[in-house]
Amino acid sequence: MDITLEDAAGQKLWFPVNPSEINIRRDRSLETFQIINLGEVDFPYGEKIKEISFSSFFPAESDPSYCRYETIPDPQQTMNLINTWMSDRQPLRLMITPTEVNVLVIISSHNSSFRANEPGDVYFDLTFRTWREYRIRTIEELSGGGTATEARPDLKPVPKTYTVQSGDSLWAIAKLNLGSGSRWRDIYEMNTSVIGPNPDRILSGQELVMPS
């Protein structure tokens, strides 16, 4: 399983150690009324924002027995990055493969801890809330007197690029950046002029545009 978190600028965090479990909470919004001779009655009127949470740790040194990859990020710098993302108003892209989780989220809770017998390691608990885009209309617009609006920031993704590294394949690039190796053809179709007629022959240093 691969868990990645990416911001709008393309900065990506690939969690090196998988959690033992991932919790997804779904709730229904209810409004309760008191009805004479009947008592409480619940009226559902919408779905609450979904919450996704998991716990793991960032090791100070890579260990192939539990790390997903060899070159792991610095634990303290990673905690600082998560704190920065948490205070930011922009949503993040959370992807958990091979599950179907591929959603925009905000970080609603982030707790970290240190253990005396594991110097350098940082343990954490993270909770995300799925992002819902909304648009705020002004009174003038609602009354038909104008077109001025206030809206949340544009969430349309800015095209991202990936620089091919030695040993890369389109399948591996699609797996890391898009969450599924089967999307290698999407990358190829967007970069045929760069790659050439053979999708199996990509060169180190080539800059590929990533599909949204």
TrEMBL record:
Entry-linked InterPro entries: Bact_Kbp, LysM, LysM_dom_sf
Any Pfam family matching the protein: LysM
LysM domain segment(s): 160-210
UniProt-listed PROSITE patterns: LYSM
Official protein name in the record: LysM peptidoglycan-binding domain-containing protein
Organism for this UniProt entry: Paenibacillus ginsengarvi
